[in-house]
């Protein structure tokens, strides 16, 4: 008999690592301190927008990016009037002909460090799209390496210097890299999918079945898009220490979920679908494992990550139906440069916070509906100093946010726990077409507004729909859309004050298929 985790891999919607977080998830690029800036919020909606017919009532591919003006969102009440881009019709209409597949399941969006370019991640089709955030026009379209276990792009992250994009080829179980070549003034000249840099997290012969693909989506913009080198087959099946990369009881499924880069741009913390973690030197070619953690240290289904005050904060959430999991880890950032490496499970996390109900099963050890799922992470910064102040960790199942103060003692997260606030208390989350519940926000990935506002700032967060296309056992909500969380003046609490509702109807109009997964801020005057 197959394990629960193995059964869940049969459908993308049930894959425990198809989460983001927790933000950054992510890591999401965090706004710094300073005066209020002009900005817009990009919301990725995973619902199919193409091929919706009587035969395929839920559609076949596509998706939407909704772009909201910050000035509209800061009105009272906020104005729900986004620019809407269909990822197929408006951005990548030739994807099938040029890459072998339509773009499908737009999972997340992240800006380059200068907020000029946006990386679009397609978790079902394995594409990475680059879009000019200023013009909203496509620049490049890549498709990841095909392997014996599949190909995907769960999420990609820019390095802080803007020189690389690190891609989590989830089902392919490969970590990949796009290099950004810039001129003397820092303007990109080409985006290069560097096949020689790809790191197979499983290894062994017969793994690589298809090389990555690059398409220049706009031949008039003076930016080229290409693939260089080959992704090597037959990479080692062991880590530098000699341990198996993937094995029962160690790391059972090395599907990379969120490769969160450090502020130095040298390393990335790579969370894995089946549990455990690798710290990778992302500047090496091929990229190289310099530290390894197994299931005894890092639990399964982790994604969200954010660096603050010299530490990396990572989480883990529920890995399957009715299993409760809510953990937060704090790691130091001092790791070796390849080819040097650490012994397994060193250094240990500086601190760990785990919910008392972790591992319990609803209906057996706890009431149904009370289990947990840590996902989106947002670090709220002091508007005057720019220092990291509080970490807000969202729970997709309980619809609340746990808050931790980022200050000493660094080795005890329990002493820095500031409490929780509910996203249902305001009652602004209602019910959409086809939903069976009401007031069930289901927060996913979010980002911090660069504007301080009257109450000390706000978090914009994606709210999931009643028919989720990923992580269905934890992410079904009643009011799909863009949620606005207004923070208290002391940054330790907040309230869901508005929902910018989103709609994608199925063929007969009986279901709202909209399923937002990530909200991200793009600063416009950079």
Describe this structure in words.
This protein has 526 residues and is mostly beta strands. The protein has one domain (4-523): Methylamine Dehydrogenase, Chain H. 4% of the residues lie in helices and 36% in strands. The protein contains four helices and 33 strands. It has helices spanning 4-8, 70-73, 87-91, 95-99; strands at residues 39-45, 64-69, 83-86, 106-111, 117-122, 127-132, 137-143, 146-147, 155-158, 164-169, 174-182, 188-194, 199-200, 208-210, 213-216, 224-228, 256-261, 267-272, 277-281, 288-293, 305-308, 311-316, 327-331, 351-354, 374-381, 388-395, 400-405, 417-422, 443-448, 458-463, 481-487, 494-501, 516-523. Strands 9, 10, 11, 12, 13 and 16 form a six-stranded mixed beta sheet that branches. It has a five-stranded antiparallel beta sheet with strand order 4-5-6-7-15. Residues 1-35 have low confidence and may be disordered.
């Amino acid at each position: 008999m197959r394990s629960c985790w193995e059964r869940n891999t049969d459908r993308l919607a049930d894959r425990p690592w198809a989460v983001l977080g927790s933000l950054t998830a992510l890591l999401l690029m965090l706004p710094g301190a300073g005066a209020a800036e002009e900005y817009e919020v990009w919301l990725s909606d995973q619902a199919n927008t193409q091929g919706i017919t009587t035969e395929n009532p839920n559609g076949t591919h596509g998706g939407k990016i909704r772009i909201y003006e910050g000035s509209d969102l800061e009105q009272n009440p906020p104005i729900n009037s986004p620019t809407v881009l269909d990822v197929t019709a408006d951005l990548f209409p030739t994807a099938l002909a040029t890459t072998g597949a339509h773009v499908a399941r737009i999972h997340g969006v992240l800006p380059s460090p200068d907020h000029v370019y946006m990386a679009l991640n397609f978790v079902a089709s394995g594409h990475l799209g680059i879009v000019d955030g200023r013009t909203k026009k496509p620049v490049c379209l890549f498709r990841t390496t095909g392997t014996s276990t599949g190909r995907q792009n769960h999420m990609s992250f820019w390095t802080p210097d803007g020189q690389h994009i690190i891609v989590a080829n989830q089902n392919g179980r490969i970590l990949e890299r796009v290099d950004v070549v810039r001129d003397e003034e820092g303007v990109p000249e080409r985006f290069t999918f560097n096949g020689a840099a790809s790191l197979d997290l499983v290894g062994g012969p017969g793994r690589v079945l298809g090389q990555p693909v690059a398409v220049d989506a706009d031949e008039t913009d003076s930016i080229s898009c290409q693939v260089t080198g080959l992704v090597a087959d037959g990479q080692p099946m062991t880590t530098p220490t000699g341990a198996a990369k993937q094995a029962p009881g160690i790391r059972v499924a090395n599907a990379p979920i969120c490769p969160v880069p450090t502020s130095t741009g040298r390393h990335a913390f790579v969370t894995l679908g089946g549990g455990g973690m690798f710290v990778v030197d992302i500047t090496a070619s091929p990229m190289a494992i310099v530290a390894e953690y197994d299931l005894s240290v890092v639990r399964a289904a982790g994604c969200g990550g954010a660096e603050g005050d010299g530490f990396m904060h990572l989480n883990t959430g529920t890995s399957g139906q009715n299993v409760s999991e809510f953990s937060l880890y704090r790691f130091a950032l001092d790791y070796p440069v390849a080819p040097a490496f650490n012994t397994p499970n060193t250094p240990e996390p500086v601190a760990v916070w785990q919910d008392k109900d972790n591992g319990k099963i609803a209906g057996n050890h706890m009431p149904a509906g009370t289990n947990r799922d840590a996902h989106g992470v947002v670090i709220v910064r002091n508007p005057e100093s720019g220092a990291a102040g509080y970490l807000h960790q969202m729970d997709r199942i309980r619809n609340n946010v746990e808050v931790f103060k980022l200050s000493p003692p660094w080795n005890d997260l329990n002493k820095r726990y500031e409490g929780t606030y509910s996203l249902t208390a305001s009652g602004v989350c209602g019910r959409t077409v086809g939903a069976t519940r009401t007031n069930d926000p289901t927060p996913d990935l979010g980002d911090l507004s660069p504007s301080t506002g009257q109450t000390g700032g706000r978090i914009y967060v994606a709210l999931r729909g009643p028919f989720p296309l990923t992580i269905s056992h934890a992410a079904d909500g009643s009011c799909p859309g863009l949620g606005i969380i207004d923070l208290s003046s002391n940054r330790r609490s907040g309230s869901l004050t508005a929902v910018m509702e989103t709609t994608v109807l199925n063929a007969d109009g009986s279901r709202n298929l909209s399923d937002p997964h990530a909200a991200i801020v793009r600063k416009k005057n950079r």
